[in-house]
Amino acid sequence: MILNEIAAAEQSGFPILTVLIFLPLFGAVIIWLFQKDEDLIRKSAVAIAGLELFISVLLLKYFVSQSADIQFSERMPWIPDIGIGYHLGVDGINVLFIPLTAFLTLLIMIYSWDTGTALLKPYFMALLGLEGSMIGVFASLDLILFFVFWELMLLPSYFLIKLWGPGPQSHYAALKYVLYTLTGSVLMLVGLVLLNLNFHADAVLHGTQPLYSFDLVELLNVPVPLERQTLIFFLLFFGFAFKAPIFPFHTWMPTALVEGPIVMSVVLAGVKLGTYGFIRFSLPLLPEASRAWMWVMAGLGLAAIIYGAFIALVQSDFRRLLAFSSISHLGFVMLGLFALNFQGLQGSLLQMINLGFSTAGLFFLTGFLYNRTGTGDYLAYGGLAHKVPLLAAFVLILGLASIGLPGTNGFVGEFLILLGAFRAHWLLAAIGVLGVILGAGYFLWYYERAFFGPAGTAVTKPLSDLRPREWGIAVALSVMIFWIGLYPAPFLNIMNGSVQALTDRLDRGSFVKAPRETQMVSPVADRRLPP
Amino acid sequence: MTESYLLSIILFAPFVGAVVLLFVSNRRPFLVRQVAVLFSGISFFASFYLLFAFDWHKGGYQFQQNYLWSEQLGIQFHLGVDGIGVPMVLASAILLFTGIFISWHIKDRTKEFYAFLLVLAGATIGVYVSLDLFFLYFFYEMSVIPMYPLLGIWGSHTKGYLEMTNPEGKELRDSPGFILNFARNSKEYAAMKLTLFLSAGAVVALMGILLIYKFSGVHTFDIPVLAEKAHFDGTLAVVIWLLCFFGFASIAPLWPLHSWSPVGHAAAPAATSMLHAGVLMKLGHFSIIRTDFQILPDTTHALMPIAAVLCIGSILYGGYVAYYARDTKYVIGYSSSSHMGYVFLGMAALDYISLSGAVLYMFAHALATGMLFAMAGWVYDQTHSRDIPSLGGLVSKMPFVAGCFIDACMASIGMPGTVNFVAEVMIVLGSWGRYPVQTIIAVLGIVLTMAYLFRMMRGLFYGQLSEIGSHAHDARGWVDRLPLLILIACSVVAGIFPGRLLNVIRSGVDPILARIIEVSPVLMNASQVIP
């Protein structure tokens, strides 16, 4: 996988990715300097998020579709002693996540306009910090830089869950989330270090410079020995699986989603960092191990699909249901990734974006419901469709998108994933389809009990329907859902080039590449010091 | 020309300050503090100058001063620093300067307190700049002595000790039982235990030093001469190595020789704990490098696996106890002793990267643990309690301190952006080749660190505001805030731009390690380094 790079200066004229990462971070600092003028804080937070979305749309505008090149690349040495660099860049795999993050953050800011309560300043600072670090995760092509942002994310997440979580157990949920993720990440760090050491061994053998590198593009040129791949694969797997979360490492997720604030649920359910890690790092760097463990990974995906769906069936709380449905959807993404073919990868990538609109959107709507009724339990609902018809309609639209109704984005994603799975083995697709059926089951059953029928205890008093701000959020999400559902071509075109390159690499393996002048002189022996 | 006296200035400024303080009346405490600030400030700025004046291209010992002290005994007053000494001198000077401000509010015998503090820091710096074994030992022993009065006079009892009564309400404090009763000790007991442990360790190390002197055949204590000319074989080498290693490891503190350390840290006043955990403990590692690594390279190669085994005990046991400790300073004390295990791991791996990482970790840990002890001291000053369960909710009373505390926790965990992270990555990178199991345990130790530090943070700053915290106030003036800001700034700036510090460290590590493992440092390549 030889990747060309196009520098940011040629494409956009300014270091657009650096701006995207540091604009929210500096925005957080600026908000910190404000006095306690709440209105000003809100307005500037929304303005910063809006500007961020605008710049990230510019990124899409200048992005060249159907290309496998790394674009808007920025590259500088940072700690050259151990090969850490400041390397940013986007290709078809990660470019869509950046506008998605900016889009969700803007909606979150708008959502928080009237729901944000005490401690407004640190709240918006944490949100902006979270946005900056997530975009950093997506834009980094240096493994350590990636890890830096990956870890930085934990800090605002911890405080968002802990300080603004409405649940009585929010302390516990926050600590559980952070500890689980950190356990995975430190193991992942060891995996990243092993990749570097492998690079180092190769560089010493061939007498090339640099001797150490954490740079994804350079690491791709050095195949990892087969016996090492499995170890590194699983070390990375822990990092990504805890974050994603992938069954059976998911136990923090329902706790965090239910105890934490709505905005954190939106981020955790909408921004698929863990599975992004697989497609960005595990698959291209370790193609042989990915193929060898394909059945285990796809099996975990299937287990998650079925397990998540069954648990979701019996939930009475809407947020809990969504948490488990999220786990089930992540199973689909894993299934598509480890089908290891073009359709599967593309479907997974599209599905990761889709979930950012549908599942995350459902969390927004849950938030609206929760603000009105003070509960998420269907036992207290019932007959909501009469009281809040517009809200009920949007819940239906987003819910149907999340279960993959044709015409919505979920259908395109799930269809591609199942197609890919079928090409890998018919059995995978056959079991995966069950997830679609169960998905329709748990959502529609819940919807029927909560929105139709006699009015429940929480619905007795008059409820207001969607306010303009909420209406805006719901419409924005629905537009995206139908856009991707009815005309997915622009999105698929953006991905095509990179997904094709990745598929080629998976098919060919990491050992086949352009021959390289090999020096068989052992430099280690020559470089011994005189005694 | 002043450069040739630079080390003398750094070393003797605190001693001169201590002498000057003897002539200042205790009735003028402000003048006492001014004198202390002045003389520690000289060291502080001079050691920054040292970092930037040190020529890492040239490497070796620089700023040397050599005066014959006793010709018959072959003792010279030989000062000089290499790349390992520079960061440690810098850390000592930073902690001394900030420690002066941290103890600004001490009212009891101010003059004597500052005099002892200056002597303590001066002696510590003395070890780091001595190139003569006699003076290395001289300053080493000298640094232990001021700890006794500092703990015994200005220290504090543990809560358990104060409450030690039998069911009839009779005080049991003087019953012999308390000696064995862990965590219920008086400050006098802590002072005694610390001094005895460290003196015993020092005597063991002295035996090693004297054996080196007697059997080296070059009739000198001069480290560069001994490293070059002395040669030891067989049992003698092993005996000397073990004596020096365990003698110095007792201050490090290596498990199972650590038990004085948490007791001592807990009893000490804040500034003393800072200096003690920050730089005094590193005297152990530093002296091991100076004696074992430099004078007995072959034996080091053979015996260093001992450290690799024991460091696991440090990491896990320290972390485990820290999680269950109820006393803030016990938590930080055990955390320090746990983190010193990383340094031993980095040293044991005998790799260029990992040893540089270990040295950098010593510097990083000095800043991080300094911050934590400073903040624990602030909380103790305000509430007169170190008992975590009886504290809580302090964030509303001291937001600035709480913010700094979070930052210190992040630094201690090794969050990216702090220098600890760079050091951790380097230790992991270098140690994997030789000790993969230990490396995995070490990274899981990071999770443990996060667990106990977050637990303490939650206990102190969040939750219900406790009764004893109702009169607490924040760090208000610049005197209270400046030291915290200096420590945070050093940690973050060094974390983001570690280039110069790393180059300096490498210039010291490379020649030492090259003699041990006989593989040349492949990295020191001019093209690789940030100009």
Features:
heterodimer; A: 531 residues; 71% helix; B: 531 residues; mainly alpha; two-stranded antiparallel sheet; 23 helices; globular; disordered C terminus
Q: What features would you describe in this structure?
A:
- The complex is a heterodimer of chains A (531) and B (531).
- Chain A has 531 residues and is mainly alpha-helical.
- In chain A, 71% of the residues lie in helices and 4% in strands.
- Chain A has 24 helices and 3 strands.
- A 3-stranded mixed sheet of chain A has the order 1-2-3.
- In chain A, helix 4 (97-115) runs antiparallel to helix 5 and helix 16 runs antiparallel to helix 21 (426-451).
- Chain A starts with a strand and ends in a 5-residue tail after the last helix.
- Chain B is mainly alpha-helical.
- Helices cover 69% and strands 3% of the residues of chain B.
- Chain B has helices at 6-22, 29-53, 85-102, 110-129, 133-144, 147-154, 159-162, 177-180, 187-216, 223-229, 234-249, 260-267, 270-280, 282-295, 297-303, 305-324, 328-348, 352-383, 399-413, 419-431, 436-461, 478-496, 499-517; strands at residues 62-70, 75-81.
- Chain B has a two-stranded antiparallel sheet with strand order 1-2.
- In chain B, helix 3 runs antiparallel to helix 4 (110-129) and helix 18 (352-383) crosses helix 23 (499-517).
- Chain B starts with 5 loop residues before the first helix and ends in a 14-residue tail after the last helix.
- The model of chain B is unreliable at 523-531 (pLDDT under 50).
- At the A-B interface, helix 6, helix 7 and helix 8 of A face helix 20, helix 21 and helix 23 of B.
